[in-house]
From TrEMBL:
One Pfam family hit: CPDase
Protein name: Cyclic phosphodiesterase
GO biological process entries: cyclic nucleotide metabolic process
Domain of life from the UniProt record: Eukaryota
InterPro entries registered for this protein in UniProt: Cyclic-nucl_3Pdiesterase, Cyclic_Pdiesterase
GO molecular function, one term: 2',3'-cyclic-nucleotide 3'-phosphodiesterase activity
């Protein structure tokens, strides 16, 4: 039988171990609680996104308040791709450094026209492209892309927001005007085009606003059939109302600058450069 002194020693030792265990548990619980408490006040730090349009031009929104903030996957421009720095320089030498100024539909109408253009392209073995009404095309400047962007920024300050209205589906004699929605020559659309020519110092033929639905060199007979087909889909009751235009026009509140060398009928080199809000 153990002596009373030895029993007391064992009891004291066990109590010490128990106290040490409690202390360690309390310490670890306190650390865990403090970490949980800290996590309640911490917010994940997401890097600020300048958006595709700003990044494409290599400029920040702070450096140019007239540059719109684009969003990846948005219906703002439906880009084939976004231009990277010097992308036009990497294009074949045969392609000229040419740009276009577009007024693009957004929202439901933009998505519908994007799908309709893709449908017609697949039907005729042609390239698809983002829906747009060209305000000014074949833009070439001695200073290249940066000069085009600078002039476009100035233009955006002079043009008021306006509306584009469609009149009918028709066809033209050239590749880039194969089948298109004719745009009414309203004051807003014509004034915007006139101001663009004045600011860029460009002289062109009479402005014929339109929104292309098909780029192709198909024969005239096929073009006529395509016009009938699209008229039925976009305006006719025979469409079953599934493909009728959700709106017969759209508001223009920005201009998009695109790299669009005319010689590239495949459109593989075409890309979005930048976009500017109209503040005139």
């Amino acid at each position: 039988m153990p002596s009373p002194a030895r029993s007391s020693a064992w009891v004291l030792a066990l109590c010490g171990v128990a106290l040490l265990g409690c202390g360690l548990y309390a310490f670890s619980s306190g650390v865990s609680s403090s970490q949980r408490g800290l996590s309640l006040f911490q917010r994940p730090q997401h890097p600020a996104s300048d958006g595709l349009v700003i990044a494409a031009a290599g400029l920040s929104s702070r450096s140019d308040p007239h540059r719109l903030r684009g969003h990846q996957g948005s219906s703002l421009a439906h880009p084939l791709r976004v231009c990277t720095a010097g992308s036009s320089m990497s294009a074949p030498e045969a392609l000229r450094d040419q740009y276009s100024l577009w007024a693009q539909p957004k929202g439901r109408l933009g998505e519908q026209l994007k799908a309709e253009i893709a449908h017609l392209a697949a039907r005729h073995g042609a390239p698809a492209f983002p829906p747009h009404t060209t305000v000014l095309g074949d833009i070439e400047r001695p200073g290249g892309r940066q000069e085009v962007l600078a002039v476009a920024a100035e233009l955006a300050k002079k043009v008021k927001k306006y509306r584009i209205n469609f009149t009918d589906v028709t066809r033209g004699p050239i590749y880039y005007q194969c089948v298109y929605l004719r745009v009414a020559k309203d004051d807003g659309a014509m004034a915007a085009a006139a101001t663009a020519r004045e600011v860029f110092g460009t002289t062109t033929g009479p402005y014929m606003p339109h929104l292309s639905l098909l780029y192709s060199d198909i024969p005239e007979e096929e073009r006529a059939k395509a016009v009938e087909y699209e008229t039925a889909r976009l305006y006719g009751e025979s469409s079953g109302y599934d493909t009728l235009l959700v709106e017969n026009g759209y508001e223009v509140d920005s201009f998009a600058v695109w790299y669009t060398p005319v010689a590239d009928k495949s459109l593989k080199s075409w890309c979005l450069v930048g976009e500017f809000e109209l503040t005139g």
